[in-house]
Amino acid sequence: VTIEDMEALQGQDRDRKVNAVMQKACTALHGTDANMMVELVAEIVGLLSPPRSMSELKGDSTMTMDAQLQLRAAVQTRLRDTLMQLLGLRGEGGLSLQDPQMRELLHIPLERLRRQLQDRDLGSLACKEQWIALARVCGARTEMGRKRTDRQYSQDAWSKD
To answer: What is the pTM of this model?
Structure first.
């Protein structure tokens, strides 16, 4: 399954895949299955919606639309949280990002994530704490970090907080 396959899912197929990925992630984290965790990182990156600013979330909409947005946001928050666990940024276990072979295996999904976050103002995003942590791990240049050097980004890209 590719990142593009995940991005293309819609409706009930997407919902089923999200639920399956969340269950597999729980199993992988409890069993410390690194191969499954790497696969799940790619799948979750494909299922993530691009970051949205708080201003995009506000506006005039019906209650039904509000409920849909809240449900979608909760699913996205859970996906980001699970991704953070898989990457060892939160909780026990997760992948070792200090391992050069692991960095190579995660290159494509983290590069995709980096491109989504590139040049974004993380301070204005919904769930900014999650996005900031993910930006750090993938080495994205953001509005909050423009004064940092390329060397600092490469050093921080794979270090845990």
So the answer is: 0.77
Task: Tell me the per-residue pLDDT of 16-60, one tens digit each, with 9 for 90 and over.
Answer: 999 999 999 999 999 888 999 999 999 999 999 888 776 665 554
Q: Which residue has the tokens 């494909």?
A: 46
At 37 the three-state DSSP class reads helix
Cβ-based neighbours of 79, under 8 Å, separated by 6 or more: 18, 21, 22, 44, 47, 48
Cα separation, 28 vs 79, in Å, equals 15
DSSP-based three-state secondary structure for 48: coil
Separation in Å, CA 49 to CA 8, 126, 160: 11, 12, 24
Determine contact, residues 119/141, Cβ cutoff 8 Å: yes
DSSP 49: P
Q: How far is CA 36 from CA 27, 28, 98, 105, 117, in A?
A: 9, 6, 18, 12, 25
Tell me the pLDDT tens digit for each residue of 108-157. 999 999 998 988 888 888 888 999 999 999 987 766 544 343 444 444 44
